[in-house]
User: Fold these one by one.
Assistant:
Number 1:
Amino acid sequence: MAAFSRGRHRLKLLGRLSCQTSTRRFTGKFDYDLVVIGGGSGGLACSKEAAQFGQKVAVLDYVEPSVKGTKWGLGGTCVNVGCIPKKLMHQSALLGTAVKDARKYGWNISGPVTHDWTVMAEAVQNHVKSLNWGHRVQLQDKKVKYFNMKGSLVDEHTIRGLTARGKEMTLTAKNILIATGGRPKFPTQVPGAMEHGITSDDVFWLKQSPGKTLVVGASYVALECGGFLTGIGLDATVMVRSIALRGFDQQMAGLVTDYMEAYGTKFAWKCVPRKVEKLPSGSLEVTWTDLNSDQDHQDQFDTVLWAVGRAPETKTLNLDKVGVQLNPETGKIVVAPDEATSVPNVYAIGDIAEGRPELTPTAIKAGKLLARRLAGQSDELMNYNNVATTVFTPLEYGCVGLSEEEAERRHGKDNIEVYHAFYKPLEFTVAERDASQCYIKVICQREGNKPIIGLHFTGPNAGEVIQGFALGFQCGFTYSHLLDTIGIHPTCAEELTKIHITKRSGQDATVTGC
Ligand code: FAD
Ligand code: NDP
């Protein structure tokens, strides 16, 4: 997780910006103060904020259809093929569990409860389309010019736009922002992967149920998709080549996958896919190797969903010609703390930028702050440290700060105190649900007043819980601040304010009583 540091990062940038502007080759007036390439989370936020400060702004957004031909509207990954449809499908899955609980709570639900993919998908897609429309209206209201065009750089002040029908346009701008995000990768070394598989660019737009699904990958996207597919009653297997949720606290990752397994998701641990073949029946036959035994296995699936990471969307931007430096390993754009690229007047934010979290709120905040700096309204830099996040798996996992492994690495095992608790959400009791994986971990430094350096929570509404505590984190709270906070009873989040058993003590961490 992100480096541990606090406080606002400010830099006197204004002098530097005006210095950059003076190096420009153009002396005449530009068409725009700012042209943004990419109308996703970061690009839209930046363009609207800049317009608010009186800048003349244009946004170019263009969606290259997925390999399977799926396409969508304005708003980028989050709105169309990410956070929003994912969270709604996750909600659909949670409701399935809630219906089961409901019987215990006195609801008469006669007959089997079944799920209809088509109804869910249509409702989700309609909501997404309303957001696409909303973004267009907002741009119009804020007087940001929107072009449904693929953008590329001609030079540091000139952008070429190309429509799907091949119509070209050239714009000039004082500043250019690249916010083109990324797209899912395919494992090209696996025969049949691209031909027969889908990715997160497709799954939310399927008209028919994906049926029995193999999800390959073990990070956010794989676990979230595997989780909601199981939750709506499908046969879902997650294939993990190494560990789940790399970079996260591994004890917490284990709880997340244990819960998923207990609730029906199958896991193929330490397995790698070898090939995908389409059978005459239309089923997909997948061959994989179990790395433990070195044995090959086969099974048939209706759908194979690749969730093996994302590639930055730079191919068509012409960046090498203009000299925008990329990280050769990741292909992402190298950026300075003020989001500047190696080329003056050209900036990059969001998923396309090297070393940034691939999360919507960071892209949005970075975009807004950049707009304010470019408009000469502020010199505040984006603080990428201690960004809270949540994995929307069937048992949600939210965290902020360091994992236990990272805390030990940075501070030494003897210099940290880990408080922990296994708790039972009240709503699980009447429903007689197993709460073995509902767990809280607070990691503090042992010295001084025990500053908190990591906070982890698995349980219902983890995102809501962690969002609140992230504020404390940002304010530099300590273990005693946590204990001084009066809980709200009866909630899951209150367990954080009562946490008192240390791992070091070896005591049973199960919360008992009210
Ligand atoms: P994007 O939102 O990807 O926008 C880039 C836009 O630029 C796209 O519209 C693209 O089509 C367009 N574009 C690309 N090239 C060009 C070009 N040459 N010309 C014109 N336009 C171009 N984050 C969270 O915080 N919470 C979540 O719950 C969450 N869930 C996710 C679930 C999934 C399945 C995925 C895949 C991602 C999820 N994310 C989540 C991550 C989040 O969606 C991204 O971090 C965020 O969208 C990045 O914003 P961005 O502005 O950098 O790029
Ligand atoms: P990640 O890059 O985080 O993870 C890729 C996963 O695929 C890893 O488990 C990796 O395993 C595995 N993998 C890679 N190549 C192969 C292969 N050839 N065969 C088998 N497995 C492979 O990608 P995601 O797409 O899951 O997520 C991208 C980003 O999107 C995240 O980092 C996150 O920031 C954002 N996101 C945020 C969400 C949220 O906020 N809730 C939800 C979804 C996405 P290994 O560890 O072995 O390399």
Number 2:
Amino acid sequence: MDILETLYGTRAGKFVANKAGLADPPRLRRGRVLPTGPVVLGELDGAGIGRATLELLGITPGQPTLDLPENRTRDENGREQAPRYVTKPGAIVVDATGVREIVQLEGIRALLRPVMRGLEPSGRVIILATDASAVEGLEAKAVAQGIDGINRTVGKELRAGSTSNLVFVKEGAKAGDLASTLSFLLEGRSAFVSGQTWRVGPQKVAHDLDAKPFAGRVVVVTGAARGIGAAIARTFGRDGATVVAVDMPQSGDALAKVANELGGSALQLDITAADAGERIAAHVASRHGADARIWAIVHNAGITRDKLLANLDEKRWASVLDVNLAAEMRINAFLLSHDVPGGLAEEARIVGIASTSGVAGNKGQTNYAASKAGVMGLVWAMRDELADRPITVNAVAPGFIETEMTAAIPFISREIFRRTNSLSQGGDPVDVAETLAYLCGPASSGVDGQVIRVCGQNLVGA
Ligand code: NAD
């Protein structure tokens, strides 16, 4: 149990925690749940892609109508309260795809100021902008990056579990290409994703959004017996997938439990085995039919063997790199180059798990940081290599997530990791799972070669 949650559970505890300057961790809206209040749309000279995408999602946007100055209260110094929108929004979508000049950034400020204290809990700020690669001229490119600075700061200033994220729209992307991303960001599925920026282009293969996006599709999840992997398996199962749950033979009981719960199958396999890719394909064919193909492979299995580099021996080095990076590469290499029964479908998704330790480094984790930064490098390299195939490769980089892996971290460090993000709490395994499910969705093939942090906007590497 999180010590702050315990403290805030009582009046006296709340008093002490507040006096100590500890933030009250807000309860986050999770799952396939939209905000309660209206989704306000602010348009800044764009071509209407924000409006068109909301329309596709069946959302009628509210108008950013400000309250009247005479209705605003004043503080003790006589200063007028900041303007707010008449109806408290659940989210604001700022379509800044037409912003090219420094002076136009003022429009973003004016739209966002009223929501900084006037958004419902677990509200959303979503900014759409045109990617720097799709605009001409120094000012436009600088301005695109300027919007990134706004997003990251807004994420830090929002309160009560609200998040801010920026989506850069790449050349040629249309509303249908953005729909899965906007839907993910508006819903509670993105609860622990804040201050992040990623790029969305035209879908490699066009698909509509679907409530059960993985129905009839096989998804392989490694390290599925517990922690984040079990949450991934359950989330894909919720969304209709036939889940193949993979884990070490010694985790067999827990693994079978997860697989049975989902009506999937369990494969006891050490992923570092040289023939792991072959065995995964053979299992899929034998258990799910010779015609079955893998829609998505989720490389989740991972280990830590922490030591300061001064004390780090070869064994700890080798095992972490083998499980976290080399095994993933070998499995991918087999599946991408062998058209065998139970192998990768022609259109497919490959996702991995990096870490904020890979983004920023972490004391005592040279081996882990090397492996996780390696996962990010792999994503970027594979995106280019697979550019002509209908396969996307992405990763998530979790921050502090409450699992058995992080329960092993000493108490004080654990508390610090939990608090040093914009949402003042550790993430739930389901937060990582939801982001992976979004990336693997049939309608998400415009999202390729991205690493999305699921870290509550952790200060580490921010
Ligand atoms: P965990 O230790 O709770 O679970 C990992 C699972 O992987 C276990 O069931 C384990 O048996 C399995 N596994 C390990 N080696 C394997 C192998 N060789 N073959 C097959 N299965 C193997 O870990 P977790 O916290 O759920 O982490 C899951 C992933 O998320 C890992 O890649 C981890 O590095 C990453 N991650 C976690 C956090 C966090 O805060 N928990 C943060 C960043 C990244």
Number 3:
Amino acid sequence: MAQQVQGVVARAKGEPVAIETIVVPDPGPGEAVVRVQACGVCHTDLHYREGGINDDFPFLLGHEAAGVVESVGDGVTEVAPGDFVILNWRAVCGQCRACLRGRPQYCFDTHNAKQKMTLLDGTELSPALGIGAFAEKTLVAAGQCTKVDPAASPAAAGLLGCGVMAGIGAAINTGNVGRGDSVAVIGCGGVGNAAVVGARLAGAAKIIAVDIDDKKLETAKSLGATHTVNSRSADPIEAVRELTGGHGADVVIEAVGRPETYEQAFYARDLAGTVVLVGVPTPDMRIDLPLLDVFGRGGALKSSWYGDCLPSRDFPMLIDLYQQGRLDLDAFVTETIALTDVEKAFERMHHGDVLRSVVVF
Ligand code: APR
Ligand code: ZN
Ligand code: ZN
């Protein structure tokens, strides 16, 4: 039987979100209903509310979540009721060219639940990133659920569903950071600081954090950055070169999404080094680089989408490292809040004083 639960809904562009009663159908074939235990507040949720993603209002927000599978539909073999899972944005098809070539991260036939959750009057909701987890329960495709160690804290586990995974993955998957490497991270918000943590996990010897905000640099230091550079007071390209014996870093991770920081990333890398772009630019942004520099510096210029993560491989592995005390996910949980406080959390995020506010149920 369909259930009624409370959820955070954005009804119209730019308007504050509100708690609404939503209707969650029973899972159909290939679907699962998950009892959400924790869901982080991410910039993308705010972006949905502001109409920056698309106009498919009303949105059911929330997408960095962990919880327990309550029920599954016909044909579901991936998970069973009672499993503790982290949710990801999209189930992959397993059949397309990308999937068959072993790159399901780039699957072009991904899917979410087929049925829709609705408001009480029957209006269909658009779940943020196909999840919609600022709700006591949510309906997803079973392939969006990845089973992990149930002893892990839900607030920490949920973070792997989005921003923290994007940052860690940028370092360990896309950047392929290796033991002894020097790594520079430009922009140390939630994503950049997760890249710092990823670089440390991968065994980087030098981790240079760059930001314009000293508070963020302090956090980066506490998470494993060996050096910090405030790029308001020092030229970050010069500073990174100086800190790497005049060479530049083996891997530079850009986690801001602005032309000037893309350019800094490009020039802060060593010859034949790798630049990883995680910051998402807006459609109007351009950079203008001499082709001879692109050619002459060698190396790789890569973009990292969702940290090039493979949930089935990366979520359980990172949760195991967390459980062993080798990956401090708790450091990213600045505060835990109630479902009613999402709007307040957006405000705090705007002021840049939290890594993550996490709704716990
Ligand atoms: N140089 C260096 N750092 C900067 C600059 C700059 N010119 N401008 C902003 N920053 C810093 C901010 O001080 C902040 O610490 O970049 C950081 C951005 O962090 P958040 O706003 O918390 O954003 P985050 O969630 O980390 O996402 C960063 O990655 O996935 C993408 O869409 C996301 O583009 C965004 C980026
Ligand atoms: Zn997110
Ligand atoms: Zn596919």
Number 4:
Amino acid sequence: MSEFPTRRMRRLRRGGVRDLVEETTVTSDDLVAPLFVDATADEPREIHSMPDVYRYPVDGTVVRAGELRDLGVPAVILFGVPEEKNEQGTRAWADDGVVQRATRRVKDSVDDLLVITDLCMCEYTDHGHCGVLDDEGNVDNDATLAYLRNIAVSQAEAGADIVAPSGMMDGAVGAIRESLDSHGYDGVGILSYSVKYASGFYGPFRDAADSAPSFGHRRGYQMNPANARIASEEARLDVQEGADALMVKPALPYLDVLRRVREQNDLPVFAYNVSGEYAMIRAADEKGWLDAEETALESLTCIKRAGADAVITYFADDLARRL
Ligand code: PBG
């Protein structure tokens, strides 16, 4: 008679026991849905590298936001595709800019939905970089801060609940906080893309927002994927400058960084499950190589397990329907 094994871990995976002892649960309350608002579109246009993700005109954005709220998604993050791009990205802070118009309309028409606005210049500049350029064609950090201040105020004026600077400019959070406060928007929060890597996983997004840099790359401001320790310093500076919440982006290839930021900070931590992470799963599913429903939920569970309080994900609609 063998006494081995006496510890049988499988007992914890039987029937109802498995659910009872589950450590991490994804709910629709954790999800933020990205929405692309397109000033040049008069009907929803599907993004070819992101099945079921669309660029919406302002009207369509309002309808879509309402559907997401009805599904139980508590927040959207808006990205703009402007009618015109130029060197200074002037449409980024226009009172009638596409994100400003959409924000006003969504806040007017959809109850209890948080509107987060992505705060960056790359969708608005003709060169596609996340700031204004100096004479040598490099992004001028400090000159860009003045633009970010204006964009933040115009988004707050339109009714944004939270602004989300995503350009990785040094000092952005402090500059934006100061600008919002001095214009009477001390209630508007800052969700900082504190730890944003220079990643190939943004490919489909750049299709969607038509925001690929026309020359060069973003490695001069976005982080080096090889580094994790520097992430701590990026997060620390943002906390010090007044961020309300931190973000790690992308999510799946950077779960170690997410865990690190979670453990070192007590502010909420968001993760951005980016366009490439979505596209990979959907493409493999189309080929019949894996199941998108299963792997999407598994991905989100792992991102939460690693430490995310909330996740920005293109799977928000699909997950909210199922959870
Ligand atoms: C803008 C921005 C990007 C993403 C979010 N905000 C693109 C970039 O930095 O090139 C990517 C999101 C995604 O891939 O889903 N700075």
